[in-house]
User: Fold this.
Amino acid sequence: MPGKKSYAGFLDFVFNVYKGMEAYKMTLAYEGEINHDIIKTFTSLAEGNMSRHEEPENLQKKVYHVLVECLQNIVKHASFLKTINNIEYLKNRGMLLICRNQNEYQITTGNLIEKSTKSYLEGLLNHINALSIDELNQLYKERLKTGQISDKGGAGLGFIDIRRKTGAELTFQFLPISEIHEFFVFTSIIPREA
Amino acid sequence: MDNLFIEPTDDQPKVEFFHDTGEFIISGKSLPEDVSSFYKPVMEWLQKYSLQPNLVTELTFKLTYFNTASSKVILDMLMIMEKIQDSKKQVTVNWYYPVYDEDMKEAGEEYSEMVDLQFNYISYTP
Assistant:
């Protein structure tokens, strides 16, 4: 049992989480293991929420699509790490935040990646952002034709497809967390008038 | 050669391949946990069929959702169909899309640009 002082601190934290979620119109927040069953659970939760809000079916479909691709990225690519700053991390651990405001849905994921993959990932995402829609479609078709399904089950098309589906630039940031890892934050924005 | 049937789940499509009539239907959602192992028997069946195909083959996609890993397998299936067509057999692709889902229709149009096959686009209300 935490002492009075630490429990008060914890209460502050809980209240701040609640206030933060309200401020950012967060409909779902999660941090923990991400696996196939969890993807199915979250997509079905999100579908249920959107359906209750009577969102247009096409928008529901886009949100569903982006959610699956973002979460599958974590399952396939999140770095395995046992302990960092004495905190244990699970394999395929990640964070998912879904915000719904007046104009858009915002899907944010956060997960650890190894520092050595940062420059590759950064280059890939910048390249995808720099392409026009026509060039993006061309790249998608090329990857589809020449790519193979990796042993992790990916076709290397996820980010390209998220950009195509949302029509918006991919937003991302790398936050240093240890000597060997970075915390990769990735946000997709889906306009509600889509 | 036997028919091929796979029952759908909430993340795997329904597969109905009728050898006698040459009607092949894939419907539902496709985001299996392991795309390669789910589609392995499907691809093996199609490869075998392509060695001695019927005069007429009709491949129907009626998917409400497929992930990017599945999109690669769909192209692989279409490429087998193209091979069948090259052996002077008739092949048609029916691409169903939910009436509200322009992205799904465009996905079909993109595939049709990548292979030399006759595509029919059919909208429906799921």
